[in-house]
Inverse folding.
């Protein structure tokens, strides 16, 4: 089996103010992609929440278990990560 | 022997040209340098500078200016003013010195190119004065900054910045190489004297001079005011060039102005915006960045280009909307990625400062408040790792500024997103549609690799934050940190609850 390949993506998390370089692996699941993107934003510029996250690519939300390769995400592509449910504000 | 009055000889001297016998005109003024394009060769004979100046006049005036500036400097050198200046304000001066000193030198080369390849002798004559001006500006910036190196090594970046690959320097180099070095001299005249010097140097030199005086930095105010008097003169090379270009190729004139204005506005949002709205102490701020832009750039520049028969740039509404957001976003980015800059960014978000920001920018709290609140909590919790980067923002392939900084959070019209373009199988990213369009049209003269691209192609080793900082030339003694050592965050601490 081939070694996992790094895939540099241009990722944005939720309501952050920039997109960032995040290097994921082609075997990473969307859960792992979300965690890698969130690591650079959540608790730093976006408050921590007890909530699930979801990855979107080319306008559609991806299932948590599929991998970067299966989703067809290539190097330099835009990927969006957000909370599964919008925050409820009073 | 009686000397002729200036008006009796000036018109002959300023417009004296060679009659070429042994070489073709094209050999002396090659199109790729002179850039006449659709303008007939004869049309350049009408080039007429609005500001008349002979060489003796020039030397006499410049001598007076130099005497005045250096006298003030010599007097202040014996005072303790520097030690009393606010640390945030000092950052404004450091940004200026590092960001502009060697750009003034690049402008020497741009003026030299116009003085050699301009198609009118009168234009070439004026460009010689412009070249001498820019030599003076380079020297004055380097000399004034040098005085402070023994007190603070960040001032050494006046000399060093453009010899590094620091990300802001790459952004500035991208703009100025595209404006001064890569194009032909007609394009240079429309970009540099007309768009940049007429439009934008006012921002750096007039607005900052007022804030410098308010902040007690008389030396800096004196220096940049003196520079601006030269800019105001040699900027006038742009008008006559534009007038001729408008008669023969208005479409080209409009494009050059539109692209230069956009890219200059993007760069000044980081060069001047944070200085005016965050680094200058609150009590010394004269106008907000937006107010200054509206008065000096929006109203003045628009009137100017319309006088020449030009239209408003196609992105005008987006530019105006950006006055509310771009520099706030860039300031936040500079503060968060502060080890990557050669100055100490003043966060500028104490409660009183946030009230001021909200009063000047009614959407400020909605757009930036939640992010700053999260950072402030980290500071107060002692979680400094939560206020520092472990990766880079993705950078725009045109302006080299982070993707998202031509937008803001909670902004439906201009949301934080990339505007990609796939060309020859490679995906480029842009902060905005105008940056994408400018790159597409003029990539031959404007393209430079971004830091992200250099990182991903292995140019930066090791490919981590430490490797990136070393590659940018940032040593621990100069890399940026909070100007006030985070003291401003203390007022946000929740009061301790008394235990009975």
């Amino acid at each position: 089996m081939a070694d996992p390949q790094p895939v540099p993506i241009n990722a944005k998390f939720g309501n952050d103010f920039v997109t960032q370089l995040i290097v994921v692996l082609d075997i990473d699941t969307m859960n792992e992609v979300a965690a890698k993107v969130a690591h650079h934003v959540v608790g730093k510029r976006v408050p921590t929440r007890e909530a699930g996250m979801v990855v979107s690519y080319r306008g559609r939300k991806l299932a948590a278990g599929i991998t970067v390769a299966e989703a067809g995400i290539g190097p330099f592509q835009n990927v969006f990560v957000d909370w599964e449910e919008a925050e409820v504000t009073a | 022997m009686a000397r002729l009055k200036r008006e009796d000889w000036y018109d002959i001297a300023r417009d004296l040209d060679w009659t070429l016998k042994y070489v073709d005109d094209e050999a002396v003024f090659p199109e790729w340098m002179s850039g006449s394009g659709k303008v007939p060769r004869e049309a350049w004979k009408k080039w007429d500078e609005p500001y008349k100046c002979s060489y003796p006049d020039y030397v006499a005036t410049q001598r007076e200016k130099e005497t005045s500036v250096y006298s003030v400097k010599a007097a202040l050198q014996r005072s303790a003013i520097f030690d009393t200046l606010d640390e945030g304000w000092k950052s404004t001066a450091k940004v200026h010195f590092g960001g502009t000193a060697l750009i003034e030198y690049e402008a020497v080369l741009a003026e030299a190119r116009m003085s050699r390849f301009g198609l009118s002798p009168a234009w070439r004559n004026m460009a010689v004065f412009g070249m001498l001006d820019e030599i003076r500006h380079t020297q004055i910036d380097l000399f004034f900054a040098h005085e402070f190196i023994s007190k603070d090594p960040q001032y050494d970046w006046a000399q060093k910045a453009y010899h590094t690959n620091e990300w802001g320097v790459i952004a500035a180099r991208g703009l100025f190489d595209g404006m001064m070095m890569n194009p032909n001299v007609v394009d240079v005249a429309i970009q540099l004297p007309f768009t940049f010097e007429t439009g934008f140097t006012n921002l750096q030199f007039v607005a900052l001079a007022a804030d410098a005086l308010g902040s007690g930095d008389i030396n800096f105010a004196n220096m940049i005011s003196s520079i601006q008097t030269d800019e105001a003169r040699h900027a006038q090379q742009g008008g006559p060039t534009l007038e001729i270009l408008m008669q023969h190729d208005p479409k080209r004139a409009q494009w050059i102005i539109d692209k230069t204005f956009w890219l200059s506005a993007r760069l000044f949002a980081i060069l001047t915006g944070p200085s005016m709205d965050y680094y200058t102490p609150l009590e010394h701020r004269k106008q907000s960045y937006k107010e200054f832009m509206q008065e000096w750039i929006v109203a003045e520049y628009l009137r100017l280009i319309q006088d020449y028969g030009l239209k408003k740039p196609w992105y005008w509404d987006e530019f105006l909307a950006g006055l509310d957001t771009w520099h706030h976003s860039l300031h936040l980015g500079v503060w968060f990625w502060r080890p990557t800059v050669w100055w100490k960014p003043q966060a500028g978000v104490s409660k009183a400062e946030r009230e001021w920001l909200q009063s000047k920018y009614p959407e400020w709290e909605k757009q930036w408040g939640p992010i700053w609140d999260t950072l402030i909590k980290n500071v107060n919790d002692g979680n400094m790792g939560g206020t520092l980067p472990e990766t880079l923002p993705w950078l725009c392939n045109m302006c080299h500024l982070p993707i998202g900084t031509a937008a803001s959070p909670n902004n439906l019209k201009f949301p934080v997103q990339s505007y990609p373009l796939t060309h020859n199988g490679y995906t480029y990213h842009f902060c905005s549609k105008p940056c994408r369009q400018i790159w597409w049209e003029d990539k031959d003269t404007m393209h430079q690799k971004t830091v992200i691209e250099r990182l991903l192609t292995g140019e930066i080793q090791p490919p981590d934050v430490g490797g990136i900082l070393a590659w940018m030339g940032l040593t621990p003694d100069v890399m940026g940190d909070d100007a006030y050592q985070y003291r401003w965050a203390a007022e946000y601490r929740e009061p301790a609850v008394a235990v009975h």
User: Anything to note?
Assistant: Residues 30-39 of chain A form the longest helix (10 residues).
